[in-house]
Amino acid sequence: MKFPILLIGISIFFLCLFLHISVWRWWYPRRRVVVLFLLFILLPFFFIIGYLGFGWFDFASSIISFTIIEWLAIYLIHFALASAYILSYPAIEAVSPSLAISLMVGDSNLHGVVHEDLMHIFDDEIVLEPRIRDLIEAGLIIESNGYFMVTHRGAKFVRCFMLLRRLLGLPIGKG
Fold first, then answer.
1. What pLDDT score does 81 carry?
2. How many CB atoms lie within 10 A of CB 78?
């Protein structure tokens, strides 16, 4: 593989990451994963199609001249990076109790943290409520008469993860 192909694939990813950060600072979308998909997957795809098929970027053709196969390789590199980022984004966005505990212990210097101090910090407001709100906003669950119920879309989502856990030999319903 040529170095410029790798460099441009990575550059497209970082350009999308810059757009992502800019959009989030300007407007925090409700359906974040959909917007991430548009920014990281569709936008570069349409850029490449526009470059190759429609000559939208003729000014760049003298600088960047790749074959269709090389553009596919560039998009594949970008797609791999973007997919990994999109899949890890919910973990980045969420409050991670493990990370928060590590930060608290690290901030305590050599004194350490007492178990009871941790129990007071991680209540349902911090850990449970944001996850419920995310699931409702994503349309995966609904609340009705004080009960949470999975939506049709949520059931499909759960089945995919159950299948993946079975394929990996992991127990269903456990961490």
1. 93
2. 24
